[in-house]
Amino acid sequence: MIPDLPANIEQIKGFLAEDEAAALYRHARAARDLGPVLEVGSYCGKSTIYLGLACREGGTVFALDHHRGSEEHQAGEMFHDPEVFDRGEGLVDTFGEFRRNIRAAGLDDTVVPLVSSSEVVARHWRISLGMVFIDGGHSLDAALLDYRCWSAHLLQGGILAIHDLFPDPFEGGQAPWAIYRLALASGLFEAVERVNTLGILRRL
Ligand code: MG
User: Fold this and answer.
1) Which residue from 52, 76, 104, 108 has the highest number of Cβ atoms inside 10 Å of its Cβ?
2) Is the pTM of this model over 0.85?
């Protein structure tokens, strides 16, 4: 049971299973005293709400997303949603929807939106982090960039969570699984648990 979970959480656009959401909440709760949480790939804020609720008492969630959608959200692609497409600009724009959802959840004072790309935000980033949740682009280039930009800022004992792990290539794209294995092979992380398609690692 998560206190103050919005009644409409099921209606919020996003791709996150209930058991994965509960695991994110649990790990963010434990990590928030170590340092802030950074999420890569917030989309309309569903996972951000779980992280935010976990951090509301004195924690902060940096929610990084360019809000232009990943590859699969673009017009004509499988997960395109015309409700978050700006026809005037001819671009996906999930930021309005994100802001409304965060405000409605009472998390404006917990969640700091970073509306840009990983590469640009990471350029001058100096804040050490208690938890990093990678749920951004699913191309190998995008996943590797997110991993390289953010895993280095994790404090010792911090949590690295990676979404959309599909060890079987017939079930899903391989980029998140590739960075999960890369993290383990680096010797810098230990596996904590896997919940559905969510992988949890700890920085040694
Ligand atoms: Mg995902």
Assistant:
1) 52
2) yes
Altogether, the residues listed in the chain come to a count of: 204
Query: Are the C-beta atoms of 155 and 181 separated by less than 8 Å?
Result: no
Percent of the chain with pLDDT over 70: 100
Q: How far is the CA of 40 from the centre of ligand 1 (A)?
A: 10
Average pLDDT over residues 33-59: 97
CA 116 – ligand 1 centroid, Å: 18
**Could you tell me the residue range of the domain that residue 145 belongs to?**
9-203
Residues lining ion ligand 1 (Cβ < 5 A) are 15, 135, 163-164
Candidates 27, 67, 73, 138; catalytic one: 138
Catalytic, 67? Answer: no
According to DSSP H, which parts of the chain are helical?
A: 18-31, 46-55, 95-104, 118-122, 140-150, 175-185
Residue 140 lies in a domain: yes
Q: Name the residue type at position 141.
A: D
Output the domain CATH number for residue 194: 3.40.50.150
Q: 192 C-alpha to center of ligand 1: Å?
A: 19
65-77 per-position pLDDT tens digit: 999 998 889 998 9
